[in-house]
Amino acid sequence: MKKNKKNKAIFQKVYLGLIMAFFYLPIVYVVFFSFNASRSLTNFTGFSLQWYEKMFHTRAMMESIYYSVLIAVIATVVSTIIGTIVAIGLSKSSHLIRQIVTQVNNLPMLNPDIVTAIGLMLLFSTLNIPTGFGTLLLAHIIFCIPYVMLSVTPKLRQLDENLAEAALDLGCTPFQALYKVIIPQIKEGIVSGALVAFTMSFDDFVISYFTTGPGINNISTYVYATTKRINPSVNALSTLIVLAITIVLVFSNVLPLLKSRRKNNEKTA
């Protein structure tokens, strides 16, 4: 019996190790060859930072980074504001309206990206809207709003239904009740929705490909355009993105842990 449990534990560890290797070895591979002295992606000939230097001197690549960050930030801010307001409004609506809007809100997440992308492309072409920065930004805002609502709605369901009315009875205006009472209570859901919206916008390719115009590329569409030729600068760009994400994850997980430990130390002191 003990032998079977031991073998099972070993199998689980090996299985977990294989899954981790499947996910992270490609990332390690990209990071490793971003420092390669040659253009080869299979033969490491020596350590060099030339691809990082070339990346910063490639105007098209720097523009793609600029557009990716700019669009992701604007789309996150706008979709977070709209999604939060709509979610709060739905929480005070009738059950029928809430169900209808929720089902409509779930459609962009359930639909394949290609369906949403083609639909937006046809919408812009039907309205004779020239594709470019504006259509790309509008498309990102549209598909980010459902993710914000999905994150905020569960927090709203946890609130006391009489909380807003109590704030109004104590002298708050409707706007004061919104930003002084309701929003602080659902802050975690808003932050989660904003992070998901930023990630989805920054990472998107399919919708961006169908709604962008000439001269406007984010990172994903730029990388796709350069896949027909070997470009080690893309490895350097990917490495910097991985580094930035790692720093954000470390800070978002370590800082709350340090704060909780500090509070515990103050209580025990």
| CATH class category label of the domain at 62-243 | Mainly Alpha
Give the total of beta strands. 0
Give the low-confidence spans.
Answer: none
- The average pLDDT value, as a whole number, equals 84
Q: Specify the structural class.
A: mainly alpha
Which shape, going by the Cα principal axes? globular
Q: Beta-strand percentage?
A: under 5%
Rg, nearest Å: 24 Å
Count of helical regions: 12
Mind describing the biggest β-sheet? none
CATH superfamily of the domain at 62-243: MetI-like
Order of helices and strands: HHHHHHHHHHHH
Q: Architecture of the domain at 62-243, CATH level 2?
A: Orthogonal Bundle
Model description:
With 269 residues, this protein is mostly helical. It has a domain at 62-243: MetI-like (MetI-like fold, Orthogonal Bundle). The protein has 12 helices and no strands. α2 (50-57) packs across α12, α3 (59-91) packs antiparallel against α9 (187-203) and α3 packs across α11 (219-225). It is globular. The model has no long low-confidence stretch (mean pLDDT 84).
